[in-house]
Design brief:
- The chain starts with a helix and ends in an 11-residue tail after the last helix.
- It contains 7 helices and no strands.
- The protein is 76% helix and 0% strand.
- The chain has 139 residues and is an all-alpha fold.
- The chain has helices spanning 2-11, 16-32, 34-45, 47-53, 55-78, 87-107, 114-128.
- It has one domain (17-128).
């Protein structure tokens, strides 16, 4: 279900980098929306145990979710919106970044802060926009 939801969000925009943004926002919305949070909480918080008990199923789910954003990252690089990089690793990094944020927020009492989610999206997009292969500088 989540894959279909994210694909629909991504198809609503034409620019590849905006598709990446749509994927990120859609992932984080699972913790921001009260209904989504209620549905996601049992799976997100038990992800480690689920991966132990059902490794093939969890891996397949992750591949479906990351495939969506991999394609958008590749297209964004081809369009010159971001420097060339490693779309597979970048997609995996974005997945773990969003899942880690969601797990932390879903374990807390009360609703997640939308401003924190927006900051995470901007942080992730800035990471993709980095100059390929450049080490972090000391400004």
């Amino acid at each position: 279900m989540l894959t279909g939801y994210l694909a629909h969000r991504m198809q609503a925009t034409e620019r590849p980098l905006e598709q990446v943004r749509a994927w990120l926002v859609g992932m984080l919305e699972q913790a921001l929306d009260p209904e989504g949070a209620a549905a996601t909480r049992p799976f997100a918080l038990a992800r480690g145990r689920l991966a132990e008990a059902f490794p093939d199923e969890v891996a397949a789910s992750e591949r479906q979710l990351t495939a969506l954003v991999q394609g958008a990252i590749r297209a964004a690089a081809a369009a010159g919106e971001i420097p060339p990089g490693d779309p597979d690793r970048d997609a995996e990094s974005l997945y773990h970044l969003t899942m880690g944020w969601m797990q932390a927020r879903l374990a807390e009492p009360g609703p997640a802060d939308r401003r924190d989610a927006e900051r995470l999206v901007e942080f992730a997009l800035a990471g993709l926009a980095r100059r390929a292969g450049a080490p972090a500088g000391r400004g």
